[in-house]
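Support reply, case 0932

Customer input (verbatim):
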Amino acid sequence: EECIPSYRLLADRDVQTLTRRFPPDTPGLSRGVVSNNDRPVGWFATINRVHNKREHFGELKVGLITDFLAQPHNATAVITAAVRYLRSTGADLIVCNASHTDWKSSLLHNGFIQGPSNFPFLASPALSRRLAPLPNFLQASHLVRADGDKVWAMLPASSSLSNPGPFRRAS
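Our regenerated output:
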């Protein structure tokens, strides 16, 4: 709830939605809480996956920072903690998608490079007009890999994750 005013668009990320989105028994799933002076300031969810001769990654151990949330001024602390965790697990490559300017800056600060994305935001012409200018709207919104369907491709076929929760407009 504290984060809602910081973003133009933010998916529901309450405990019930996150538990449905990432059940505790999800293979390769890890979650972390980031604190400052013993006060939680953000959290992250990661997925580790070893790809065996897959098209995009060969036999790399890929770590995915799939979901996260904090106030934008705490973005670097959250991304740093997620990267530190994934490195400790032996990830060869770490992938993350974020739309918000502060989160993108935090990723660059942590050594990520920006490249083409296979994670598009698709909007009808009517919605695009309503959100115009769309690039500015997206840069002020919190959209991450878990908000789309590409995250499911990173999971084992046996995973029973349900559809992520609905979006709500924060401001």
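We compared this against your earlier run and they match. Two observations from our side: Confidence is low (pLDDT under 50) at residues 156-171. The CA atoms of residues 119 and 150 lie 7 Å apart. Please reopen the case if you see a mismatch on your end.
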